[in-house]
Amino acid sequence: MITHVDNVDVLPGVGPKRLDALHELGIFTIEDLIGYFPFRYEDLGERIPSETLDGDKVTFKGIVSTPPVVTRFGKKNQTRFGLLIEHENIRVTFFNQPWLAQNIDVGQEVAVYGTYNAAKAALTGMKIINASVDALDPIYPSSKKITAKTIRHLIELAWADVRGTLGSLVPQNMRTKYRLLDRNMMIESMHFPSDMATAKVARRSAAFEEFFVFQMRLQLLKLADQNFAGEGINYDERAIRNFETSLPFKLTAAQTKVISEILQDQKRPRHMNRLLQGDVGSGKTVVAAMAMYAVVTAGMQAAMMAPTEILAQQHALSLTQLFDNAGLSLRVELLTSGLKVAARRHLLEDLENGDIDILVGTHALLQPDVAFHHLGLAVIDEQHRFGVNQRAALRENGVNPDILAMTATPIPRTLSITAYGEMDVSIIDQLPNGRKAIKTTRMGHNQLDNAIAFVKKQIDVGAQAYIVTPLIEESESLDVQNATAMYEAMQLEFPQYQVGLLHGRLSNDEKKTLMADFKANRIQILVATTVIEVGVDVQNATVMLILDADRFGLAQLHQLRGRVGRGSRQSYTILVADPKTDYGTARLDAMVETTDGFILAQRDLELRGSGDILGTKQSGVPEFVVGDPIKDLTMMEIAQQEAITLVSQKNWDKQVDNQTLVDYLSRTMANYRHFD
Ligand code: ADP
Ligand code: MG
């Protein structure tokens, strides 16, 4: 007798080759196999000819009206008979199934599945069906190496043994509350539904189970964080207050609020896993600086990871300035991929000895030879640029430090309860005082001269400008060409000013020098590709001129616009474009209408639609087999609530009704044993 925990190769007919094919589909155990659901059903539902369109695949049920006649031509043959459906008589033709004739008699009721030809009132039959069993034909996702039919056959084989033996993952009370099928019924009805309504209930039950199990995992991760990992950071409160007083500005109320949330979290002897969300320019860096300083006052180290070299350089620089300014002698170092071997070795030695307080870098920080003396906090800037894997890699790097992930991208609800479901969230919902709303205009390329004239006016009064050149999908070299051409044009246009050119092909040192020159106003106009997209902070820059703006996504445009309006001067964004699609126009309109990142993110979701969000891996929404977390968001939220409620109950994992779930989680989660 086969059970659900067996490996699939216990089934007859599963040799090494099939096993391979099954593994590729993610099927390892019998449980995986019976949980491999059809993605749709061929609807064999009955209809009548007058309601059937030409070319439809349908099932007609009727009385055989003329005796079947088999005609042969060469090696082929056809079987024909008349079928009376209510009052309409149609002709049914089967090709190459002569044996059917023996089983069909005039006056007999039969159901035939096939393709309807309306003009000829004829049905090309595919099969005679037994309506009660075959009403819906399940269609399985298959691969080159294994057909849907084989998969179906294996499922039937396995189900014959396993059916009726399964406990439910979703506890009884929830199943009653939300009218869900128990697991046996659910799986049976997913594979062999008697009708569409049953298939629907089964799918709802399966989606809920999928969401609920997923949310249970997140809750268990969260529990593990709270109860076991992490150490309390015994920071020096007075020193932190002094640092705050020494800042060149007064913190906003929102910054103060999130800093105290973070500090409280750090003090607790639990692992911090916190997402800091705040629109571009809301001042997240200084919040991170205070959290990192706190760790240093407790004798530990901090790391800050940024998605680009430029941003990492900028962070290293501005952190150093902040600490110097406060008269604090912290050692902040930058680890880049361009470092010479000997220099790198020295740096890593100092890091391991604890001589470096804060290490800033790109994902180069995740390399295995980067060992800290005592890492107390890892900050991840522009977290949405990193994958979940990198987040995990940081955690696995030795001691499991506290994590502070930062993002300007507002998190739609779907993401917040799926991709970030295990994190606590702090939000900066306010910009520093004195910021003037950035004015955004759009114009066609024929007005480019006006735009350039405007840039000149701003620079004449002492401000600086960015000019961002078009984004050529997949072609960095064309990006560079465009930027170079613009750079040369601007040098001719502005002989009295310094123009800089920044793109991804420059060396790190070149980038560093350029950014430093721009920051110090030795360069007034910076022509750049999107390498400046995130994080760059130059307060004196007041114009962001974006060429072919319709080539950029809404989130990118918002990030680019966020490079200006960082000081007290009025700032401007000029979008130059002749959009060719409605979608392009809509994005530009949205940019002109609002500077609110949250509204833009919402608008972005609407414009792209959920299909695309799910289609693009980078959206960060985890993939589900049955449920769609965007369409079924309410169900996902309910599942989350139920998971939270369940794990908050004492001894929930000892209760009889939850044993199947506990077994399942301990079987499928690698680290489950750490939770109990
Ligand atoms: P982001 O949240 O986009 O990372 P930054 O941390 O780069 O924003 O901050 C944007 C700019 O605002 C920086 O120049 C920073 O020094 C400045 N800033 C941060 N907090 C304040 C504040 N409370 N008052 C005035 N300026 C601030
Ligand atoms: Mg930033």
End-to-end CA span: 32 Å
Mean pLDDT: 86
Report the CATH C-level class of the domain at 237-267 and 283-407: Alpha Beta
Helix content: 40-55%
Strand content: 15-25%
CATH topology descriptor of the domain at 237-267 and 283-407:
Rossmann fold
Number of helical runs? 23
Keywords: ATP-binding, DNA damage, DNA recombination, DNA repair, DNA-binding, Helicase, Hydrolase, Isomerase, Nucleotide-binding
Domain Helicase C-terminal: 447-611
Organism: Leuconostoc gelidum subsp. gelidum
Family: Belongs to the helicase family. RecG subfamily.
Characterization of the model:
With 676 residues, the protein is an alpha/beta fold. Among the domains are: 45-129, OB fold (Dihydrolipoamide Acetyltransferase, E2P), CATH 2.40.50.140; 237-267 and 283-407, Rossmann fold (3-Layer(aba) Sandwich), CATH 3.40.50.300; 439-594, Rossmann fold (3-Layer(aba) Sandwich). 41% of the residues lie in helices and 19% in strands. It contains 23 helices and 20 strands. The strands form 4 sheets. A 7-stranded parallel beta sheet has the order 10-11-9-12-13-8-14, sandwiched between helices. It has a 6-stranded parallel beta sheet with strand order 15-20-19-16-18-17, with helices on both faces. A hairpin with a 4-residue loop joins strand 5 (109-117) and strand 6 (122-129). Helix 8 crosses helix 22 (633-648), helix 9 packs antiparallel against helix 11 and helix 12 (309-325) crosses helix 18 (508-519). The two termini are 32 Å apart. The structure holds adenosine-5'-diphosphate (ADP) and magnesium ion. The site of adenosine-5'-diphosphate has 18 residues, from helix 11.
